[in-house]
Design brief:
- By secondary structure, the protein is of the alpha+beta class.
- Among the domains are: 13-137, no CATH class; 140-251, Tetrahydropterin Synthase, Chain A (2-Layer Sandwich), CATH 3.30.479.
- It is 65% helix and 11% strand.
- The protein is built from 12 helices and 4 strands; from the N terminus they run αααααααβββαααβαα.
- It has helices at residues 4-46, 53-61, 66-78, 85-93, 98-110, 117-125, 130-138, 186-202, 207-212, 215-222, 248-310, 315-335; strands spanning 141-145, 155-158, 163-175, 232-247.
- Helix 3 packs parallel to helix 5, helix 5 (98-110) crosses helix 6 and helix 5 runs parallel beside helix 7.
- It starts with a helix and ends in a 5-residue tail after the last helix.
Length: 340
Amino acid sequence: MTTTTPMLAALSDISIWWILVPVGVVGLIIVVIISQYIQLWLQALLSGARVSLLDLIMMRLRKVPPSAIVLNRIAARKAGLDINTNLLEAHYLAGGRVDRVIRAMIAADKAKIDLGWDRATAIDLAGRDILDAVRTSVDPKVIDCPNPQSGKTTVDGVAQDGIQLKVRARVTVRTAIQRLVGGATEETIVARVGQGIVATIGSSVSHAAVLEHPDRISKTVLAQGLDSGTAFEILSIDIAEVDVGENIGANLQTAQAEADSKRYQAQAEQRRAAAVAQEAEYQAEAQKNRALVVLAEAEVPKAIADAFRAGRLGVMDFYRMQNMQADTQMRQSIGQPPEA
């Protein structure tokens, strides 16, 4: 009995260690895992944006970076905005940029701009830079017309007197948050302003009138409501530069005169060729008629011979005819002018 009792005690100690070691390892793993989120949990707790440890662990399992969610929630909370972590996670999983949405909402709230979470996330998911849009709404930006990246430096228009004018304008715009989803971009603004400039110059009787009052261009274009259907509101259109270009009217008249000259030359050449062809036809017809005359003259001796045989023509008649022919030839030879 005395020998069996120490053995049982030793076996019980070994079994306890087999239980304590795995429990200790599991506890150590849990402590290590939790320790990764203790700092974020404390930071959120002390900032008034409470987030539970379980939520932090579940964020990691859902492939969402907890630091991004917690830090953006803290920033929103400090700015007076209460955004739930579930909304932040949902927007991150949808492919949105949580940090820019939060910063945009904070900037909009400070600038007294109505920008809710749903609208901000919709704009961000649509591919627009919501933070840049809010900044542009607060601080309007200037757009060059035409865009220098297009390779053109001026918008060219021709007045009614044929003089070309080269205009460079600067458009001041402000983002319209309510029209940002589905609204046209800056390229549409630049295209519409350029179209308005060309139309205004074209309706001017003289280029001198445009040079005297360049503000007519900006006033006329601005009155057309070019920002409708776009994501911007046009505040002003300023004409930065107006230069005189070529005399397009004179160039067109010169080109037209050259074209008319070539056309008239072609028509004259056509008439000359027709006259030459007609002359050739007449010559051919004359040659044909001469051949017929020769053929007819060849029939005369035959007819005289037949008349002799039939007795319809006598010798004296034949001699008189020969005398008449000789007289005719003599008169023709006398009537011809002398040769040089």
